[in-house]
Design goal:
The chain is mostly helical. It has three helices and no strands. The radius of gyration is 11 Å and the shape is globular.
Length: 65
Amino acid sequence: MNATELFLKAVDAYKAWDDTGKDFVSHSDLWEAWDEAVVAFTRAVGMNRMEAIHAVRKSLGMRSF
C-alpha cells in the first residue's frame, strides 16, 4: 500500500474505534486495528506516532490533544 492508502486505512480504523465511544472493553479489536493502521502509516511516511494521530484526527474535523 502507498502512503495515501495507509492514511485512509488509519482514518477509517480511527473512525470505527471512535464510533464505539472508544469502548476498549467491548471493542479492543477495533483499537488494535487502529493501532496497527497508524503504525503502518507512520512507518510509511517517517513521522512520529503523535504527528500521525494528529493528522488522522484533523482529517476527521476533531481537535487534537
